[in-house]
UniProtKB/TrEMBL annotation:
Subcellular location: Cytoplasm
Species name: Flexistipes sinusarabici
Residues annotated to bind substrate: 10-12, 18-21, 52-55, 109-110, 138
The protein's name: D,D-heptose 1,7-bisphosphate phosphatase
Entry's Gene Ontology cellular component terms: cytoplasm
Keyword Methyltransferase: no
Binding site for Mg(2+): 10, 12, 137-138
């Protein structure tokens, strides 16, 4: 079996428009360029896996069943546009949660790497571990990728522009800065020496 590159993708601000804690389905809107970007990953046999912090669950803003409803909407929208993602992992925890099951110092909340580890366990031995990328709009995404030895791409959508303007000197530098998820995917394809056309 040929080894495949894998791209770990942040959700809010990267795939969908940043809207704070999304506690109503109408607030979940994918960027229009996402479909083409995911189709490109599918076309080039690159695994696409969403990695997302969802502390709104722990903080009581919405339930895990509602989050599943949102993600089913996302899967449906992608499918209608000829695209699919290979996996999705989320962290529901937050230390300030009033719900004991979520009020933990977990190993999965970004920038920690447990979600990446779980994904690689699931997709191994399919993954080429020398070709792992992370795309996100926050330095927590970049730090997670850096902690795991990934190539990282920071996008300017969502919180991206603001994060870049107020960059903490202790934050890791992304491998590349791009305008949005589509241009990030195109950069990854070029970085992998694949022919877009």
């Amino acid at each position: 079996m040929a080894k495949r590159p894998i791209v770990f993708i942040d959700r809010d601000g990267t795939l969908n428009k940043e809207a704070g804690y999304i506690n109503h389905i109408d607030n979940f809107q994918l960027y229009p360029f996402v479909y083409q970007a995911i189709r490109l990953l599918n076309h080039f046999n690159i695994l696409s896996v969403v990695i997302t912090n969802q502390a709104g669950i722990g903080r009581g803003y919405f339930t895990e069943s509602f989050l599943k409803y949102v993600h089913n909407k996302m899967f449906s929208m992608l499918k209608k546009n000829g695209a699919f993602i290979d996996g999705l992992y989320y962290c529901p925890h937050h230390p300030s949660s009033k719900l004991a099951e979520y009020a933990v110092e977990c190993d999965c909340r970004k920038p920690k790497t447990k979600m990446l580890e779980k994904a690689l366990e699931e997709f191994s031995p399919e993954v080429d571990r020398k070709k792992i990328y992370v795309i996100g709009d926050k330095f927590s995404d970049i730090k997670m990728g850096s902690n795991f030895g990934c190539r990282t791409v920071m996008v300017k959508t969502g919180y991206g522009k603001g994060e870049l303007m107020s960059k903490d000197n202790d934050s890791p530098k992304p491998s590349k800065i791009e305008n949005n998820f589509l241009s990030a995917v195109l950069w990854i394809i070029r970085d992998l020496n694949l022919n877009v056309f």
